[in-house]
Design brief:
By secondary structure, the protein is of the alpha+beta class. It has 6 helices and 14 strands. The relative contact order is 0.11.
């Protein structure tokens, strides 16, 4: 998958817009900021009974394409990041913010492509530069400067420069980046121009970038939601908001599990109760000390009855692994009474254990 960091601020612009991302995955076009829900519409033509067989086969093909597209985007991994050169006579400035999970990923190679049409003047005067948010390895750089004279361009016409290099190898970092192309001594346009850098696969929802979805990721997302601290990388449905819907998407779609699955083994069952009650944080009177793994499933940093309400409302208890594409959410069953009974016993035992731990050992 290729993610393109497009131009975001030009000299003629009065204000800068946010960094835009454009992604194309397996034929599914995702517009800027929308990596999760790409528009993908294919409407087959309906005929009469004589072509019903064709219609059925066509719909099956479409459903297959939709499923493939959803899976590709939902589990999007990125191994190529593209930084664009500025258009002739312009510059732009953008930033990779501190909340980006891309920070710290290793750049392992790069390709430079520059295709330019020079209509008048001399291509030897062409000059462009691009600075990238990379902390380069020793002896490397994060800036590319291309001058027409240095790369053998002269006169007018179409020119192409390509290079594969490891001189940008290093690690992506937070900070501003940008580019400028100076339109002096010539007239022309950049037909295509960018630097592609290779990085390890990125898993959407892996906010701590350890190449897996774990409790630390949902805790990081919950912190962002609770503090209303917006970042594109946490906005899983690309609605420009961070809220409980993003948490639901992480739990049910990205991690493919249920609220209540404390150990994130893909199921919500009695083993999760054992996990959370061993942590002994249920209504312990200590504010803001709980995490997903210790029972805070609604993201308020406390483990109390509201977490059980959310978990059982999600209907996943003893349902086994969540289906990849569930048609409906199962309602809580009669097992709820048994579970609540177990919950009461465990809560009492936990409180007793906590009391014993706090009892002075001497007089």
């Amino acid at each position: 998958m290729i993610i393109e960091f497009a131009q975001t601020e030009q000299l003629s612009a009065k204000s800068a817009s946010a960094t835009q991302l454009y992604t194309q995955i397996g034929g599914c076009d995702a517009s800027p900021r929308n990596l999760i829900n790409p528009e993908y519409t294919r409407v087959p033509t309906m005929f009469w009974k004589t072509v019903m067989r064709f219609v059925i086969l066509r719909w099956l093909s479409i459903i297959s394409s939709l499923v493939s597209c959803t899976i590709a985007v939902g589990n999007a991994s990125a191994d190529v990041y593209r930084f664009a050169f500025a258009s002739v006579g312009t510059s732009y400035s953008a930033a990779m913010f501190a909340g980006s999970p891309l920070i710290g990923l290793e750049v392992t190679g790069a390709r430079v492509l520059l295709e330019v049409n020079i209509d008048a003047g001399d291509a030897a005067n062409f000059l462009t530069d691009l600075a990238m948010p990379i902390e380069p390895d020793f002896g490397n750089t994060n800036v590319v400067v291309l001058n027409g004279d240095d790369i053998g361009w002269t006169g007018t016409g179409s020119f192409l420069y390509e290079m594969e290099t490891d001189e940008f190898n290093g690690f992506l970092r937070a900070g501003r980046y940008g580019a400028a192309t100076y339109g002096e001594g010539y007239q022309g346009t950049i037909v295509n121009g960018y630097v592609e850098v290779d990085v390890p696969d990125f898993l959407i929802g892996d906010f701590n970038t350890n190449q897996k979805l774990d409790a630390a990721d949902i805790d990081l997302l919950s912190d962002r939601v609770r503090l209303n601290d917006y970042s594109f990388w946490y906005d899983l449905n690309s609605d420009n908001l961070l809220d409980d819907e993003d948490r639901r998407i992480w739990v049910e779609e990205k991690a493919a599990t249920y609220f209540g699955d404390a150990n994130l083994d893909g199921e919500f069952n009695s083993s999760d109760f054992v996990t959370v009650f061993q942590a002994a944080e249920y209504e312990d009177g200590i504010k803001k000390n709980s995490t997903w793994a210790t029972g805070d499933w609604n993201g308020d940093q406390d483990f109390d009855s509201s977490d059980f309400v959310l978990a059982f409302q999600s209907g996943g208890f003893e349902q086994g692994p969540r289906p990849v594409a569930a048609a409906s959410v199962p309602e809580p069953t009669g097992k709820l009474g048994v579970v609540l009974g177990l919950f009461s016993i465990l809560a009492v035992n936990t409180a007793a254990a906590r009391s014993r731990r706090r009892k002075p050992t001497g007089r």
